[in-house]
Amino acid sequence: MSRVLIIESSARQQDSVSRQLTQQFIGQWQAAHPADPITVRDLATDPVPHLDSHLLGGWMKPAEQRTDIEKASLERSNQLTDELLAADVLVLAAPMYNFAIPSTLKAWLDHVLRAGLTFKYTDTGPQGLLVGKRAYVLTARGGLYAGGTNDHQEPYLRQVLAFIGIHDVTFIHAEGLNMGGDFQEKGLNQAKARLAQVA
Q1: DSSP letters for 69-122
Q2: How does it assemble (predicted)?
Q3: Each residue of 126-162: pLDDT tens digit?
């Protein structure tokens, strides 16, 4: 049995392509692994605050010195981190906003990249602690970016996931969605076909 954690980050709801891909993934995964628990965290409907002094205080101050708001910030970060630690499979649904990921997804990452929990510092540099996990990244993009210099999404997510020890990462891109006509249909169909192969 594998525990699956899905992180939704699209600001859109009904018209979101990344959410369409997520629903296809869930359907396929449940068909193949009906006993596997799936947790969905929606960063659009339940956003995570951006990194601030309260969270830093919760991380860094001794317990007896933390304010109530720092304690609440730490508790939120602990909950998000515990969800990630418990998961065997991580799914990031990430539309491309301005050549990169949504700020809500960046905020989630800032909460779960935790020294001593998801990575540690060693004499030879940082070492990821989440070895053995798999990740799938489902993207939706208005143009054609895969492999190009304007794609700051895939390289960043590969680096940050590797930083915490997740090296088995599969990207599925739905591209050309704002280009109209054949580009839009072809991009979505290719993504769905690729997803059907891996999920």
Answers
A1: HHHHHHHHHHHHHHHHHH-SEEEEEEE-BTTB--HHHHHHHHHH--BTTTEEEE
A2: Homodimer.
A3: 999 999 999 999 999 988 889 889 899 999 999 999 9
**In this structure, what token pair is assigned to residue 115?**
């020294």
Per-residue pLDDT tens for 45-58? 999 999 999 999 99
Rounded CA separation 13/94 (Å) = 13
* pTM beyond 0.90: yes
Residues present in the chain in total: 199
**Annotated binding residue 98:** yes
Using CA atoms, how far apart are residues 79 and 19, in angstroms rounded to an integer? 23
Q: Is 179 annotated as a binding residue?
A: no
10 is in an annotated binding site: yes
Has 119 been labeled as part of a binding site? no
CATH number assigned to the domain comprising residue 90: 3.40.50.360
For the chain, the domain total comes to 1
Burial annotation 99-124 (CB, 10 A radius, 16+ → b, else e): ebbbebbbbbbbbbbbeebbbeeeee
Q: Write out the residue range of the structural domain in which residue 102 sits.
A: 4-198
Q: What is the pLDDT of residue 199?
A: 67
Question: Is there a binding annotation on residue 97?
Answer: yes
